[in-house]
Each structure stands twice: as C-alpha cells, then as structure tokens.
C-alpha cells in the first residue's frame, strides 16, 4: 500500500488535540477540587472562633480521681464532689462569659489591659454561698473575675503560674482580679501555694451553719445520685452508739476551726474575711459593704442592686439604672432539703458545737449557729 501523508495527518492530529484537552481538563478539575477542599477546611474552623474559650473551660472541668485532701476522707462523691462544684455552674458560666464580653465591648479598648494573677481569692466553702458572692462582686466595675473554678492550687498546680494567669480576664490598672474555688479552704497544700504566689493575697471565706451546709452538700449529691445511702447512715459511724463519722467529707468541711489553723500558719487574720452565708441571703447589701471595704473598693454594690425572690429563697440581682428583670442564680441553687431525723441533726449540732466555739474565738465573730 502506498504511504499517504494526508491520511497519516488525519489520524495523528485529532489524537494529539484530544490529549491536550484532557490534560487541561484534568488540571482544571484538580484546581476545583483543591479550592473546594480549602473552603471546607476553612469553614470547619469557624465555630472554634466562637466556642473555643468555652471548650477550653470544659476541658479544664474534667474530673481527676484524686483522693480527699484531708487524708483519710471517705467521700462517696470523690468524683461527684468536683463535678458538683463545677458541673452545676456551667450553664450559668456560659451566660456569664457573654456578659463579660459585653462589658468588655461596651468600654473603650484599652491597650494597657492585661491578664494578672488574682489579688483576692474566694477560697471556700462548698455550699456556703460562694457562687452568690461572686455574682454580687462582678457587679462592681473595679472587679474582674473568672466565672469557672480554676482549681489551680489544688488540682492543676503542676501547670504553673503562667497557665493560671492565662485563665484570668484582662484587667486595667486599678481593677482587682479575682477567682473562686471553694475546695481551697479544706485542701492542706493550698495555703503554702497561695503564699508562694503572693503573701499579700486577700482571702475570702463564705461560711454557713455547718449542719445546714452538710445537708445542702448531701442534697446536691442526691440530685445527681438518687441511689446513695441516707444522710443519717452517712453521718453516723455507728447508729447505736451515735458517733459522728468524721471521715465523710460533708462532715469534715464544716470543722471550720481545724482548717483555719492551717491558714493562719501562712496568713495573718487581717488578710482573711469570713462572710456569713446566712446574712448574704437576709442582708446582702450589708455583707457586700464588708466585702468591698475589705477589698479596698468603693461601696458601689448596695441595696438597690438586690431583689429578694421568695420562690427561690435568696436575693436576685438587678441593674438599678435599667428596667430589666432581676437576674437570679441557676435552677441548681435553692434545692429543697430532704427531711432528716431530728435526733441525727441534734447529734451533729452537738458534734460541731466545740468547733464552732473555737471558730468564733479565732475570728472574733459569733455567727450564731448554736
């Protein structure tokens, strides 16, 4: 057969042309896939900008399985104890975080603002009224406080002071940085650790009738673990003998004088303020006046900031300059206490009486629990 260049070109040229088109098509397709991948990757990071800080706090809220700081403490709620002090407050804290952000945005941006280690700490006690006090204090323009409990000095101390500082909100010159972790008061290592951070730290302890406090502690636990033993069986080591079981943490916490002795080894009494949990309910403005004086602040938070809620049994907050509804603590606060055998309650009162008397002498204040 005779070779024909025309026929040859008819076969080669189209083939080369198709290959070029396929090559261009593949490149375009690759570029489109890459662009889509980038867009998806970017979108997946957007929620982190909004919720990153909350996630960080929730990670910090995970509970470890450490034993009681008082040594041979029997706490049914070794885990529950920590969950209660944090878990009950997360709904409130999420709302508080938004309020803090709103406050920060409402003021002019100040380049001198920075994160500082706390100059004052609410160190106790659990179920004493620490959340209420923190809420009241955050109304003051000269106070910046972190909402979640850092648990730095009792459970996160190995992470270092810089980690602790990063948890604090930014504050400007003249503003006081604060935090609250109620378990500090009963943890033996904490006084020395706070002293090492700053020997000038001001310490606030909210105390309450230790019998009522123990029942409130038990009530909080029972709301999460309905199948726990009765209050009576946990309180008494031997029912027939009527001996109080001092290894139960709910009983231990109320031995205020015993814990105070440890704090006085590092801090003078002038650096500790004991707030009455009862008067924080019946006369919040009066107790807040004491707290503001102790912190060296103007008396900004007064009676006009409070509205008593008879349904909950404690004061709610209101903005005196506005018409907004009063803000009350969350649904986990103000639980109804179970009926406890009066004889067990009396035995517990008799047990606490010498501790209370010593506590009154040490603080120079009669809290009227007996």
TrEMBL record:
Active-site residue numbers: 127 (for sulfotransferase activity)
Listed EC numbers: 2.8.2.-
Subcellular location per the Swiss-Prot or TrEMBL entry: Endomembrane system; Golgi apparatus membrane
Predominant subcellular localization, coarse grouping: membrane
Protein's membrane topology: Single-pass type II membrane protein
Organism of provenance: Oreochromis aureus
Protein's UniProt keywords contain Electron transport: no
Main enzyme class: transferase
Protein name stated in the entry: Sulfotransferase
Sulfotransferase domain segment(s): 118-353
Similarity field: Belongs to the sulfotransferase 1 family.
GO molecular-function terms, A-Z: [heparan sulfate]-glucosamine 3-sulfotransferase activity
Binding residues for 3'-phosphoadenylyl sulfate: 127-131, 208, 216, 333-337
Cellular component, GO annotation: Golgi membrane
Transmembrane segment boundaries: 21-37
Disulfide bonds: 316-328
Keywords: Disulfide bond, Glycoprotein, Golgi apparatus, Membrane, Signal-anchor, Transferase, Transmembrane, Transmembrane helix
